[in-house]
Design goal:
The chain is α+β, with helices and mostly antiparallel strands and 202 residues long. The chain has helices at residues 8-20, 26-33, 39-47, 66-75, 85-105, 109-112, 117-129, 138-144, 150-161, 179-184; strands at 24-25, 51-56, 59-64, 136-137, 166-169, 186-188, 191-193, 195-198.
Length: 202
């Protein structure tokens, strides 16, 4: 299938990945939008080079490619797909409005959707803790998010720390801290913190 014949589901998946600006599992994709990317839809977007899908612990993690981002930009001036219904009509009216704004302002589409670094940290925590709500060492998370600038990681932790059910704490037993733990610490309120805990949903 060519890009010109993408289904509404495939187009919507691309737009959600663009808006989130991070990797998403099918579970996260479904929680956010009610969509899943599997079967022929996943294979098609992968084959077209619009999305990469990596199998992690028997579950796919999807990420928009640069080519996928270009395809999303093309949607701003596209006609709504046939049989897309009222919701599709509303979506494409909003996309057209965004397109006009970007043209008039000189901004790029990527300017509207900066990377959700806090979401990346949260997703890494969820993966490492397996959703248990157990404390995870910041050293482990920094290593998992290797390539994420230290300052961005630290700012993301400060954002997360203000959320209900999220705790960025110091290790009570300082003797257990390794050199990596000390180096990975983030200073909040003048105190080095070494652990992230996000309470499991009940």
């Amino acid at each position: 299938m060519s890009e010109d014949r993408l289904t509404l589901t495939e187009r919507c998946v691309l737009l959600v990945l663009l808006a989130e600006a991070r990797e998403l599992t099918n579970a996260e994709l479904h929680a956010l939008s009610g969509l899943k990317l599997d079967g022929r839809y996943r294979r098609n977007l992968n084959d077209l080079g619009l999305v990469t899908s990596t199998l992690v612990h028997r579950a796919y993690v999807h990420e928009l490619t640069d080519r996928g981002a270009v395809r999303c930009a093309a949607e701003l001036g596209a006609q709504r797909p046939a049989r897309s219904g009222a919701a599709g009509g509303a979506l494409y009216a909003v996309l057209a409005g965004l397109g006009r704004y970007l043209t008039d302002s000189g901004h790029a589409l990527a300017d509207l959707f900066p990377p959700d670094v806090a979401g990346q940290v949260e997703a890494a925590y969820s993966h490492v803790s397996e959703g248990s709500g157990a404390p995870v060492r910041l050293a482990v998370l920094r290593e998992r998010l290797d390539g994420l600038p230290r300052g961005e990681f630290d700012r993301a932790l400060a954002v997360l720390a203000r959320r209900e059910g999220v705790h960025v704490r110091s290790e009570a037993d300082q003797k257990t801290l390794t050199a990596a733990d000390l180096d990975a610490a983030v200073v909040l309120g003048g105190t080095p913190r070494h652990l992230l805990t996000i309470e499991a949903a009940r």
